[in-house]
Amino acid sequence: MKFNTKAIHGNQHPEPTTGAVMPPIFQTSTYIQKSPGNHSGYEYSRGANPTRTALEYALASIENGTQGLAFGSGMAATDAVLKMLNPGDEVIAGSDLYGGTYRMFTRIYGKYDIRFHFVKGNAASKFEEKINSKTKLIWLETPTNPLLQIIDIQAVCEIAKAHGILVAVDNTFASPYNQRPLDLGADIVMHSATKYLGGHSDLIAGALITKDEELAENLYFQQFAGGGILGPQDSFLVLRGIKTLAVRMQRHAENAIRISEFLENHPKVNSVFYPGLKSHSGYEIASKQMKTPGGMLSFNLKSGKKEDAFQLLENLNVITLAESLGGVESLANHPATMTHASIPQEVRKENGISDDLIRLSIGIEDVEDILQDLEDALNLI
Ligand SMILES: *Cc1c(COP(=O)(O)O)cnc(C)c1O
């Protein structure tokens, strides 16, 4: 089965008692047992719920994995991965990370004596330099947030494999339509399903996918014992979102390509960070590992002024100024004060998250309307 078909039918079956094509929202915490221990396979909804199971099957299918797990948020999914580690273990991650991931690593797991190395520069060799006998996990985000840097997943996985280190990839920005890390050698894929998988800015959810049996068991244990599961209503909505993932992603990319070119040629814009532009440092690797360059981009201003960035953001009409990404509507974000405020200012500066940086999640509206909105707002600064 190819991707577009998988997004709709992959591992999906009509509900057996009624034939319902979409799984019902099984709003139940518990399940009858015929005699103690003799049940239908469902005992208690923290362990499994049929609506969540249907979503988990779909997640496994679209990432070419064998086990999907749905969590109450992207952070709950990340948390389950980190809980597999022991005190004294070390983790290597890129330095351009989702703010909440950086916060969880440093402020929660740092306390439990897990040591994190944040690698500057995206070359696989930079990750290799930090490996030692305590390294247990490499955490990749590519494209990175908010600078859309590209890391060569396959190259990092080859290095990690040689040292027996697990690789987890936060695939939120690309979505499985564009990039399937398990096929490139990664062990675990993580998603904030809040974003492209849900696709409609109407829920918070997370996911993990793996194809290794032992890992699947360990991660399931973390989910079941830790309890960060996704409820049946939201499971239904994410599953529904996945059905249109392919067509949405196609349009997100078409629009983002047009907008990145427009911004790159605009006199008030300094740099545009979009892996679909030839001028982007990750262009070659992105062309190799991604189907399209995706729907996320960021840019900064010739003036370099925070006030100008604020003015632009306040004057947008079609594009909504809001956190998050990956929904059908275009969203704008000021990373330094919004999504990445939890990263200390010095660290932000070092990583290139300047005060005039604007991140856009390009929606699936008519591209002319988004272009006009940006043109008008740029004219006002
Ligand atoms: C939003 C996001 C997360 C966190 O997910 P939540 O669903 O908000 O918990 C993690 N990584 C990336 C890249 C994100 O965009």
General description of the model:
The chain is 37% helix and 15% strand. With 381 residues, it is of the alpha/beta class. The model has no long low-confidence stretch (mean pLDDT 96). It has a seven-stranded mixed beta sheet with strand order 1-7-6-5-4-2-3, sandwiched between helices. A five-stranded mixed beta sheet has the order 8-9-12-11-10, covered by helices on one side. Helix 3 (74-82) runs parallel beside helix 4 (99-109). The longest helix is centred in the C-terminal third of the chain and has 20 residues, at 245-264. The protein has 14 helices and twelve strands. It starts with a helix and ends with a helix. The protein has helices at 3-9, 50-62, 74-82, 99-109, 124-129, 153-163, 175-178, 213-226, 232-243, 245-264, 283-289, 306-314, 345-350, 367-379, and strands at 67-71, 90-94, 115-119, 135-141, 166-170, 188-192, 206-210, 269-273, 296-301, 320-321, 331-333, 358-361. Pyridoxal-5'-phosphate (PLP) is lined by residues 73-75, 98, 100-101, 141, 145, 170, 172-173, 192, 194-195, 204, 206. The site of pyridoxal-5'-phosphate has 16 residues, from helix 3 and helix 4.
